[in-house]
Write a structure and sequence with these properties.
With 485 residues, this protein is an alpha/beta fold. It is built from 18 helices and 17 strands. The chain is 45% helix and 20% strand. The longest helix is centred in the N-terminal third of the chain and has 24 residues. The structure holds 6-O-phosphono-alpha-D-glucopyranose. 6-O-phosphono-alpha-D-glucopyranose binds next to loops.
Length: 485
């Protein structure tokens, strides 16, 4: 039994089956992993358990062989149910709604096939709720992560009213115009699922406000917000299911802007293998300036318009030709989805076009890597003169926080106004409308031209803002606030 439980689709470890039939274990990095380690090492936390899904065949095999990491429980959900829930609903519908990614003339379509997939999403959420209910001590704290598990808080509340439940959304939240596209009963189920939590966390007050207004829309009949106070944080928001006089519950809606652990990240970025990669990259770049971006090949990251802006920079400001290199990492993501495969191919094609148009015998304008190569990314961070972070919409974007912390000589940050990180970093970043390619090209020019002194000063302040709420603190704050309820 555990007194602190964490639930997320992707867990801290993954397994693959080697040719000889043995299992290879890979530990993931990132904020969640280091944050949870902090929770488990905190004496008073008691037993902790991380519940996650088996994502692929290797993970399923590990579950079947009973190979469990201590403190981790992987759920072997039937593969079809899992695929429908993860690809069919979480990544194709909820992700698209929260990031406003639909091409409206064709999508979204809510038909019978959608309803079947939604049934899988329900089953997948229920599997989590049941596993958590079974493993939680009396009064335990449960921290549920992200849009994959939006129904878990409500389901878990019904199974175990004694638990203290938090849910954190790492994405933006859909504006009301998007929320209204969803069939009313489905949207209500989603919101009601979320409202099972005692606390709903978002990266910025903006996403919290979007949740509040989409949850109190006049189209919502089943879930009534009894009180919708103005301003953030929204403490003690009263709600009740259905219009009748039923019991009211309260939920806090708060912004907790996740940051990075500066010491950890710098230590990672100064390991010998990163030094080696840095030396190799430096040899490729020569004494030219660098514009660095690192993303998953993710539709919302706006990699194509970033490349277009770079092309426009080289056209409008030919003085930068042969004096700058764009280091772009676009590592594979969600390649089961056709739109992601097409997008990745377009990114590769556009980078090749730019190289063909401007490249010379000894200058390749874009160095694109489409591999999941964290060592290269860290080396590129250290080399960054300019960081380009231009998502069309993003919950936070930790890359915008990581590059200023790690860059060796300080970097100028070109940052989208639609990233959650904009809220904290805007004063020292050069901010852009991510749809405005010309503005982005000019921002790159300004960033490349920024005097060294100003760049160093800004980088210092960006790094301070980026590390204001490191993962450990972010986690412990949530635990504390839930325990004090
Ligand atoms: C976003 C989501 C995470 C997710 C990550 C990678 O950051 O908020 O929940 O884990 O993307 O996506 P994937 O589908 O590969 O887990």
């Amino acid at each position: 039994m555990a007194s602190v439980l964490l639930a997320s689709n992707r867990g801290p470890v993954s397994y693959s089956v080697r040719d000889d039939g043995t299992l290879d274990t890979r530990r993931g990095g990132g904020g969640l992993v280091s944050g949870l380690s902090a929770v488990s090492s905190q004496g008073s936390a008691g037993e902790t358990l991380w519940v996650c899904a088996a994502l692929g065949d290797g993970d399923r095999e590990a579950v079947r062989r009973g190979v469990a990491e201590p403190g981790v429980r992987m759920l072997d959900i039937d593969p079809e149910t899992y695929a429908d829930a993860y690809n069919g609903i979480a990544n194709s519908v909820l992700w698209f709604l929260h990031h406003h990614l639909y091409e409206i003339p064709r999508e979204p379509v809510f038909d019978a096939a959608f309803r079947r997939r939604w049934e899988s999403y329900r089953r997948y959420n229920r599997a989590f709720a049941e596993a958590l209910a079974e493993a939680a001590d009396d009064g335990a704290v449960v921290l549920v992560q992200d849009y994959h598990l939006a129904l878990v808080p409500g389901m878990l509340r019904e199974l175990r009213p004694d638990l203290r439940i938090g849910h954190f959304t790492h994405t933006p939240w859909a504006d009301s115009a998007y929320a209204r596209m969803v069939p009313r009963d489905i949207w209500e189920e989603l919101v009601w699922g979320m409202l099972g939590a005692d606390e709903l966390g978002f990266h910025t007050p903006l996403w919290g406000a979007a949740f509040m207004s989409s949850a109190s829309m006049d189209t919502m009949s089943g879930t009534a917000m009894a009180s919708f106070p103005a301003g953030s944080p929204w403490r003690g928001v009263e709600h009740r299911r259905g219009p009748g006089p039923g019991p009211k519950r309260t939920t806090d809606v708060v912004a907790r802007p996740l940051g990075v652990d500066g010491d950890d990240l710098r230590a990672l970025a100064h390991r010998p293998e990163v030094d080696d990669r840095l030396a190799r990259l430096r040899a490729e770049v020569g004494d030219r300036r660098t514009i660095v971006r690192v993303d998953r090949t993710e539709l919302s990251k706006n990699i194509l318009r970033g490349l277009m802006a770079y092309r426009e920079l080289l056209t409008a400001h030919p003085e930068w030709r042969d004096r700058v290199v764009h280091l772009a990492s676009a590592y594979p993501s969600r390649q089961d989805l056709e739109s992601y495969r097409t997008y990745t191919a377009s990114v590769v094609a556009l980078a090749e076009e730019i190289n063909a148009e401007f490249g010379t015998a000894d200058w390749q304008p874009v160095l694109l890597s489409v591999e999941d190569d964290f060592t290269r990314s860290l080396a590129a961070y250290r080399l960054a003169d300019v960081a380009l972070v231009n998502p069309v919409r993003d919950g936070m974007n930790l890359v915008a926080k990581e590059i200023p912390v790690v860059s060796d000589a300080g970097c100028a940050l070109v940052l989208s106004r639609e990233a959650g990180a904009y809220e904290e970093l805007r004063e020292d970043a050069i901010t852009v409308n991510p749809f405005d390619v010309t503005e982005t090209a000019e921002a790159l020019h300004r960033a490349l031209s920024m005097p060294a002194g100003e760049r160093a000063e800004r980088t210092k302040r960006l790094a301070a803002a980026a590390t204001a709420l490191p993962p450990q603190r972010w986690f412990l704050d949530q635990l504390e606030s839930l325990r004090n309820r």
